[in-house]
Amino acid sequence: MNALRFCHFLCVGTFLFLLINLSLVAQEPQVLTLEQSIEIAKQSNLTLQTAEQNLKSAEAQVRAARAGLLPRITASGNYTYFKDIQKSVIQAEGGFGFPPPGREMDAPEPPSADNESDLIELEFGAHHNAQGTVNLTQPIFAWGRYYYGYQAAKLNYQAVQRDVDAAYNQLRLDVSEAFYGALVAQEFVRVAQQSVSLVEEQLAIAEASLEAGAATNFDVLRAKVQLANARSQLIRAQNGVQTAKNAYKTVLNIPLSGNISVKGTLEIPENHKIPALNLDSLIQQAIENRPEVRRTQFTELAARKQIDVAKTRSRPDLGFFTNYQISQNERLTEMNRIWSLGVQINIPIFDGFAARAAVQQSESALNQVQVGGTQVKVGVEFEVRTAYLNLRGAETIIAVQREAVAQAHESVRIANLQFQNGIITTVALTDTQLALAQAEVNRLQAYHDYIVGFARLEKAIGQKLQ
Fold first, then answer.
1. What pLDDT is stored for residue 105 in this prediction?
2. SS3 assignment, position 340
3. What is the largest CA-CA distance in the chain?
4. Who contacts 417 (Cβ-Cβ below 8 Å, separation ≥6)?
5. What angle (nearest 5°) sits at the alpha carbon of residue 217, between those of residues 212 and 219?
6. From CA 174, how far away is CA 178, in angstroms rounded?
7. How far is 462 from 285, CA to CA, in rounded Å?
8. What are residue 90's phi and psi, to 5 degrees?
């Protein structure tokens, strides 16, 4: 009995142990790096999915335009049943308008009641009729209308491909900004916790000094107020982490309820430490590589092809056609087979000036594309200049803040010693601690601005910085 009870408790304990482990595993956050985040966003981002669907649509348009260059084959068939068949009456002798032997070609005498036996009733047609036809048409010469249309569709496809590239570049930047935003928010929590720890040490020193008679109650109260403020800053920083993570999840298009954490560093990698860059060279790279600029170039070429297509509408075109037809009914002893072929020419004479209007419309569309291309280039240049200046500014701030943090740490160390020895007041100590916290925040923000600025500059020039 004891053995059975022991086995029962053992099984229950094992089950509970496994259940607790599974719940702990389920509660552990999913930790993602930057590259993992980008891969997830590529699979789920709605903007990128829309661009990819537009690319599929453009590919289908290319196939549709190519169809105009190929022969068109159609087949048709029908079956008709006639309940009643058309009938006609003719004379047996001299029927169908031919006179009987020995008579001139005069009008035959009308039938009378006496010669009704000379009349014959004929049925024209059959009850069951089946017919099938196969047609083939092929343009021979149309002044390049179909070929120009095919070229325009291919150029449009290449333009939409640039849209996909631009959407991916923008997505990579958005993910980088959201990722490093969540990462720096986590670092702000660490700084806030560090400030809380420093103030807690200050409060402990003040209370110990008060007991020893080396400090007043004011020092203790001041430290408690400072501790409350530091804890408030910690709570704000923690809330900021949650807000930054929600923005990060939104970019990745994953549920906001998901338990996600980011893994990375704000320290600048070696491949991100850039040498002196030439701004003019960066602008030139952007003009050559940015998908948005390349898109306007392909769109302009496609618009020119559409003008060529519009011009052909007022010109004649030549085509070839052939068809094969079969028919059968119950009266035929052999199926009818008819085959024909020929050429066809269409000559536009007057279309209400529709062709002229189509050319003018295409030319106006080309002008719009050219103006848009100029605007895109101006915007790209502005983006490169802004990203370059921001990156250089962040680089300078990093060098300054690195030294400021080191000095602030040393100031806090000296201030703590002086406070323990009663040389300075809590106010002076608090000032040094606040200066350290602010220097840490500024340093982290400078690292964040540099890394994000680096990503923005790469997006602005349309390629990786070497």
1. 53
2. strand
3. 161
4. none
5. 90
6. 6
7. 8
8. -135, 160
How far apart, in whole angstroms, are the C-alpha atoms of residue 447 and residue 435?
Answer: 18
pLDDT at 53: 94
Using CA atoms, how far residue 16 sits from 27, 127, 311, in Å, is 16, 84, 81
* Residue 153: Cβ-neighbour burial (10 angstroms; 0-12, 13-18, 19+): buried
* Mean pLDDT across 206-224: 77
Which tokens hold the place of 401? 């803040």
Q: What is the pLDDT of residue 17?
A: 47
Residue 9: pLDDT over 90: no
What does each C-alpha distance from 90 to 97, 102, 105 come to in angstroms? 9, 20, 17
> What are the CA-CA distances from residue 54 to residues 157, 294, 298, 435, 466 (Å)?
9, 17, 16, 53, 32
φ/ψ of 326, rounded to 5, equals -125, 150
Which residue in this structure is represented by tokens 């300075």? 424
Residues 6 or more apart in contact with residue 394 via CB below 8 angstroms: 446, 449, 450, 453
Please say whether the beta carbons of 195 and 230 come within 8 A: yes
Q: Which two tokens stand for residue 196?
A: 């809380």
Give the list of residues 6+ apart from residue 109 with CB closer than 8 angstroms, or none. Answer: none
Which stretches does DSSP call E strand in 146-206? none
Mean pLDDT for the chain overall? 84
Please, where are the H alpha helices in 28-81?
A: 34-44, 46-67
CA distance 299 to 371: 12
Beta bridge pairs of residue 79: 130
Domains within the chain, CATH numbers bracketed: 31-71+142-318+351-461 (1.20.1600.10)
For residues 46-73, give the mean pLDDT: 92
To the nearest 10 degrees (0 to 180), the angle between helices 34-44 and 46-67 is 50
Instruction: Tell me the DSSP string of 110-147.
Output: PP-GGGGGGEEEEEES-SEEEEEEEEEEEEEESTTHHH
Distance, CA of 206 to CA of 216 (rounded, Å): 8
Helix (H, G, I), strand (E, B) or coil at 72: strand
Closest CA to 188 of 5, 439, 441: 441
What is the pTM for the complete model shown? 0.74
* CA–CA separation, 210 and 222 (whole Å): 13
CA distance between the termini of the chain = 76
pLDDT in tens, 396-450: 888 888 888 888 888 888 887 887 777 777 677 777 878 888 888 888 888 899 9
Indicate the DSSP class of residue 442: H
Is residue 290 within 8 A of residue 380, CB to CB? The reply is: yes
Does an H or E element contain 109, and which?
A: none
